[in-house]
Design goal:
By secondary structure, the chain is of the alpha/beta class. It has eleven helices and eight strands. It has an eight-stranded mixed beta sheet with strand order 2-1-3-4-6-5-8-7, sandwiched between helices. It binds thiamine diphosphate (TPP) and magnesium ion (MG). The site of thiamine diphosphate has 20 residues, from helix 5.
Length: 282
């Protein structure tokens, strides 16, 4: 008998570079979804995924679930649209650091305000990889590329701090190399009621090779709930520039606030009755 995890694979040829950390992220996602389906938390047909454009986004082709292969930077609005169309679906967005923090930045901030009931997974390789390695908002200073031969002179943003400031209700960082812990974090993120954000550190073997050892600096933290001070101090431990010291990974912050579906009575009704808009009798 085929396992749930096997049913999540597709026959598309995988075109990531050999050894790319995206393979590890794909494995973590498959393990998480298979567990959630086996536990009857959701059904395979009730999962919808959205991807941006980039190396990360190819994950869309390798997962046998429904969804929408979007535009660069527009993962969150598309996912929000799916959620508004049918709040009974489990919606997961896959974004790159370029995708989420450059062109898609404004959506990220507003997602915190809306508290849309979805998960955003950011594959953060500190580079625009698919377009051959230009620097993104999380690239470290000094990174040399074709467009900045003298090196990146801008300071990276810290997406964890930005998420905390934006009111995002579930914030975590994972290390792509640690499949088991990433799967554990993804499971908690998908089970969270509200907007959950999982930033996955993913070295790029081809372009930002200065950061290739970054996974080795990570250490696991204990899951935090809504201690904002603790979350801020964890976020401050790594500034995305430093190649020394320690990088915490784990659930940095989790709090309960009404999600978009809870706040909007018609969406709550659709969820309660487990129906779509056309079956909603008013
Ligand atoms: C609207 C739009 N702007 C820009 C691009 C060009 N583009 C395609 S992929 C990409 C880089 C993606 O980088 P990131 O989101 O970090 O993903 P990665 O390839 O690193 O996984 C860019 C800039 C595009 N396809 N569409
Ligand atoms: Mg990238």
């Amino acid at each position: 008998m085929t396992s749930t995890k096997e049913r999540l694979r597709t026959d598309f040829e995988i075109t990531w570079c050999p050894g790319c950390y995206n393979f590890m992220i794909l494995e973590s996602v498959k393990r998480t979804l298979a567990k959630l389906i086996d536990e009857k938390f959701t059904k395979q047909e009730d999962i919808a995924i959205v991807a941006g454009i980039g190396c990360h986004a190819k994950i869309f082709d390798y997962l046998n679930v429904s969804g929408f292969y979007g535009l660069h930077g527009r993962v969150i609005p598309i996912a929000t649209g799916i959620k508004l169309g049918n709040p009974n679906l489990k919606v997961i967005g896959f974004s790159g650091d370029g995708d989420a923090y450059s062109e898609g930045m404004e959506h990220f901030i507003h997602a915190g305000r809306f508290n849309t009931n979805m998960t955003l997974v950011v594959h953060d390789n500190q580079a625009f990889a698919l377009t051959t390695g230009q620097p993104t908002p999380t690239t470290q200073e000094g990174y040399k590329s074709k467009i900045e031969p003298q090196g990146e002179h801008n300071t990276p943003i810290n997406p964890i701090k930005l998420a905390l400031a934006s009111g995002i209700t579930f914030i975590a960082r994972a290390n792509s190399n640690d499949i088991e812990n990433t799967a554990r974090i993804l499971e908690q993120a998908i089970k969270h009621n509200g907007f959950s954000f999982v930033e996955i550190i993913q070295p790029c073997l081809q372009f930002n090779t200065d950061m290739i050892e970054i996974g080795k600096l990570t250490y696991k933290t204990e899951d935090n709930k809504d201690d904002m001070k603790k979350a801020l101090s964890l976020a401050d431990e790594w500034d995305y520039n430093n190649k020394k010291g320690k990088i915490p990974v784990g659930i940095f912050y989790q709090t309960q606030k009404p999600s978009l579906d809870d706040k909007w009575n018609l969406l709550s009704e659709l969820k309660k009755k487990k129906v779509g808009w056309k079956n909603l009798k008013r």
